[in-house]
Design brief:
68% helix; 11% strand; mainly alpha
Length: 152
């Protein structure tokens, strides 16, 4: 099976691949210039695309992770289960004393876990807000240093 044929002339190199794709490169084109142009275009493209990604799909991924983390923490703390079973007696103690002790015990556990959950959600929300503010703060700081160095 023939993969390709190579022919050389003085000013041009043609590579013919079996699927019919023709790549031509003249002697005047330098591979270093082509690589530098490609890298420069990639850098400019990445610099332009970065804020778009940061505030679109990047922020969407962060928010989905936030929602997943909050629901996993709520499941781990079993808040819903505590609320559903708050009036059921613990350890099959169905007498009056057992029900009262079970109610207050579950109430104390529910209050403690709810406080922990509330603090956890606030902390995660703070992380999302910081994540969204990082590029703005960086641009502000760079502008304060290089663009407005003597402004008060």
């Amino acid at each position: 099976m023939r993969v390709g044929s190579y022919t050389r002339s003085k000013f041009e190199l043609k590579v013919t691949i079996s699927r019919g794709i023709l790549t031509a490169m003249t002697a005047r084109q330098n591979i270093g210039v082509l690589a530098a142009r490609s890298i420069f275009i990639d850098l400019i493209g990445d610099a332009v695309y970065f804020p778009l990604w940061w505030y679109s799909s990047g922020l969407q991924q962060i928010l989905l992770g936030f929602a997943r983390s909050v629901t996993e923490t709520a499941d781990h703390l079993s808040l819903r289960l505590l609320i559903l079973n708050i009036f059921r007696p613990m350890f099959a103690q169905s007498d009056r004393t057992g029900r009262i002790i079970s109610f207050f015990m579950r109430l104390v556990i529910l209050i403690g876990r709810s406080i922990y959950f509330f603090v956890y959600v606030l902390f995660r929300m703070l992380l999302v807000i910081i994540w969204a503010a990082i590029p703005v703060l960086i641009v502000y700081r760079l502008a304060a240093i290089y663009v407005f160095p003597y402004a008060v």
